[in-house]
Amino acid sequence: MKTITLNSDNRSVLIAQDTDTVTLEADHVKRNNERIYGLPRDAVTLHEGVTVPNNWSSSRYFFDGTNWVENQVWVDAHAALSG
């Protein structure tokens, strides 16, 4: 798997399959033909060959290139809205 983390705090905000083509552009990340704006090349890091936690959700984990640490202030928006 692949993950994109924010350079500011190492939050994992996007995952992709190993077979996906992920490129970091000046003003966005491109995953195959999908463009994700708001993630400029200078603000993110691409990590490849990672094992993603089974319950991964965007911003739920921090990843420093080796270790995953759960974000203690992460809120499951779906559960909060349906709760």
| Count of all domains | 1
The biggest sheet, with number of strands, parallel, antiparallel or mixed sense and barrel status, is:
3 strands, antiparallel
Beta content: 35-45%
Give the fraction of residues assigned to helices: under 10%
Unreliable runs, pLDDT <50, ≥5 residues? none
Shape type: globular
The average pLDDT is 95
Order of helices and strands: EEEEEEEEH
Number of strands: 8
N-to-C CA distance = 32 Å
Number of continuous helical runs: 1
What is the CA-based Rg, rounded? 13 Å
Structural class: mainly beta
Arrangement of strands in the largest sheet = 2-1-6
State the main characteristics.
3-stranded antiparallel sheet; 1 helix; single chain; mainly beta; 83 residues; globular; 8 strands
Overview of the molecule:
This protein is mainly beta. It has one domain (2-78). The protein has 1 helix and 8 strands; from the N terminus they run ββββββββα. The protein has one helix spanning 77-82, and strands spanning 2-6, 12-16, 22-24, 28-31, 34-37, 44-48, 61-63, 68-70. The strands form 3 sheets. Strands 2-1-6 form a 3-stranded antiparallel beta sheet, with no helix packed on it. Strand 7 and strand 8 form a beta hairpin. The mean pLDDT is 95.
